[in-house]
Amino acid sequence: xxxxxxxxxxxxxxxxxxxxxxxxAARQPGLMTAPSIQFMPVFGMGGGNNNSGLNINxxxxxxxxxxxxxxxxxxxxxxxxxxxxxxxTIALAGVSAFALRSYCDDCGELxxxxxxxxxxENSPTIFDRFPLDVRAERKRDLEKVTKKVxxxxxxxxxxxxxxxxxxxxxxxxxxxxFVAGMFSIQWLITASIIAGVALAAVAVxxxxxxxxxxxxxxPIMAQKVENLRADFARQx
Length: 236
Description:
mainly alpha
């Protein structure tokens, strides 16, 4: 049964980068790093030489002037919302794809680990080739490694799922801001801004939490993986 154990241990070694030291200032193993995004807000100011297109008659009343100014501000606000919403939509589409890809990869690794755990519980012949005095120890070590890997991947999948939901919702807010700006729907612009700021704050918190979480095996557990790989390789 070494042909069942070794692929799992090799997968663990690859996923957690146990066969090579982590380079300095590099991404920690198993972490999802959010890509850098730069937003360039566009502000429109009604006044000065901004070519707003207003042509106010000298005989216009104060109320008419204020109405013209209000329309000018709303037009500038709608233009800014359309530009920022368009940029945010494109950027968040990439972030959503990145988050979904990471989530799918983590779920795939978790599925492999759970299937191996079930195989380990239902196949007592896995350790038959080991001497009797070490069978119990090898079985205990392999069960501990499998349980820890599942625990780490389960937590990663839960956090990744939340990030996917947040980025998808933020993408919807970006689309709403773009549409609202294009059609000058003021209430939708306001709602999109409020939702976007709230979602951005929560998303930043979740991404930082994901990037700083301990998603790697402890040195002791990593050594157990190496020892088990060597032991089962000799049994082939």
